[in-house]
Design a protein that fits this description.
InterPro entries: Diverse_substr_monoxygenases (IPR051260), Luciferase-like_dom (IPR011251), Luciferase-like_sf (IPR036661), NTA_MOA (IPR016215). The protein is built from 16 helices and 13 strands. By secondary structure, it is of the alpha/beta class. It has a single domain, classed as TIM Barrel (Alpha-Beta Barrel).
């Protein structure tokens, strides 16, 4: 008896900004990104993604401008490269009111907010969404954010993850231990039993806290924990804490060893390597025929802002690409920013040398991930091959034109994947954790 094909999971990747991963595409005549400041765009997107049975929408965030390119933020301001950047959390309750199943993965940096406040924000959202919230745990990579929040610079890369371990000890204690499961009575004896609510005391080198959690236990109690680091320190952190991991890179040959390394780290941490869902960044351009899809991609590329692409790349890597010739080869330079972002185009695939111009062109549509362009059958073939080559569970889909890129996926690609038995035909009931990890939760 043959084993049924493994489900391919889809998640939408977006940001509360004018330009997320495709710089310049806000100028495309069919793009609605200029409406990012108003709720109708996000409500329409939420409805669309739920119609397409997406697991969720993953909302990126940054707390400072991309000011590495050229030494200041002028190019970021000019290109709109993730600037302006509005608060992603405030979108979630509105999108939740027009959906029943769609999950919300929210990026929030632990570097600049005490665990006491972070715990309350996520518990509040988990209540308001009936348990559909996840936290993408990030430590930050922009010195501009650190300076804006009163520091001279961000912590060193590995020091950020050491601090993150202290932080997780504190915030998990608030979520898990402050309120007993039966603390809330809501009867003649009172709303909650004081003997079933305790103060959490945390003392570590960089954190001090003495507090009871301000929220009663939410439907999930702890939001689904996402992590996106691919460095050694990031993967070690993910192996201890993450339930879902996002990876990014330009090809399967870059992604496959990272996924294998993560699974090894999970095993070493005493966890089931298959228990963590791994999604890779990608962009899908889907049309009725391959020729139409290629024409769409050419049209999109004509709107790319190359300077905006280098602004993003400089911010991700901590390397000022304004001072490097467009035809020069990209070489690895260590920094305290995102190490895997630099490795994507240098060390990760020694067989491929990238010029600055080539990297800017690649990043211009969908960021660091691959672009799958073609008919629904062609894109489904490419996705299946990528999953088989890398061992990932699905894709974190960026967009070229909003919401057109997601409409293409929902209307054309999803039915093709369903026909192949590779995509769900209905949502599982329950919280976001139960939907994503139902085998582990319900077994």
């Amino acid at each position: 008896m043959s084993t049924p094909p493994r489900e391919i999971r889809l998640n939408a990747f977006a940001m509360h900004t004018i330009t997320h991963q495709s710089p310049g595409l806000w100028r495309h005549p069919r793009d609605r990104s200029r409406e990012f400041k108003r709720l109708p765009l996000w409500l329409d997107l939420a409805r669309l993604l739920e119609r397409g049975l997406f697991d969720g929408i993953f909302l990126a965030d940054v707390l400072g401008p991309y000011d590495v390119f050229g030494g200041d933020a002028r190019a970021a301001i000019r290109s709109g490269a993730q600037l302006p950047a509005h608060d992603p959390m405030l979108l979630v309750p509105a999108m939740a009111t027009v959906t029943q199943h769609l999950g919300f993965g929210i990026t929030a940096s632990l570097s600049y907010e005490p665990p006491y406040l972070m715990a309350r924000r996520f518990s509040t959202l988990d209540h308001l969404t009936d348990g559909r919230v996840g936290w993408n745990i990030v430590t930050g990579y922009l010195d501009s954010a650190a300076r804006a929040l009163g520091l001279d610079a961000q912590r060193a890369h590995d020091d950020r993850y050491a601090y993150a371990e202290e932080y997780m000890d504190a915030i998990l204690a608030l979520w898990r231990d402050s309120w007993a499961p039966d603390a809330v009575r809501a009867d003649a004896q009172g709303y909650a039993d004081p003997d079933r609510v305790q103060v959490i005391t945390h003392r570590s080198p960089n954190l001090r806290m003495q507090a009871l959690h301000l929220c009663e236990p939410s439907p999930q109690r702890i939001p689904v924990l996402y992590q996106a680091g691919s460095s050694s320190a990031g993967q070690a952190f993910a192996a201890r804490h993450a339930e879902c991991v996002f990876v990014s890179g330009p090809s399967a040959s870059v992604i496959a060893p990272r996924v294998a390394k993560l699974r090894t780290a999970l095993r070493a941490a005493g966890r089931d390597p298959a228990a963590v869902k791994v999604s890779a960044l990608a962009t899908a351009i889907v049309a009725d025929t391959d020729a139409e899809a290629r024409a769409l991609l050419d049209d999109y590329r004509a709107h790319v802002d190359p300077e905006g692409a280098l602004v993003l790349l400089s911010g991700w890597t901590g390397v000022d690409f304004a001072g490097i010739g467009l035809d020069d080869e990209v070489r690895f330079i260590a920094s305290e920013a995102g190490r895997s972002a630099m490795e994507n185009f240098t060390r990760a695939d020694p067989s491929r040398a990238w010029s600055v111009r080539e990297v800017a062109a690649h990043v211009g549509i969908g960021g660091a991930g691959p672009v799958f362009a073609g008919s629904a059958a062609t894109v489904a073939d490419a996705m299946e091959a990528f999953v088989d080559a890398t061992g990932i569970d699905g894709f974190n889909l960026a967009y070229a034109v909003l919401p057109e890129s997601f409409e293409q996926v929902v209307d054309l690609l999803v039915p093709e994947l369903q026909a192949r038995g590779r995509y769900k035909t209905a949502y599982t009931e329950g919280t976001l954790r139960e939907k994503l990890l139902r085998e582990e939760v319900l077994s």
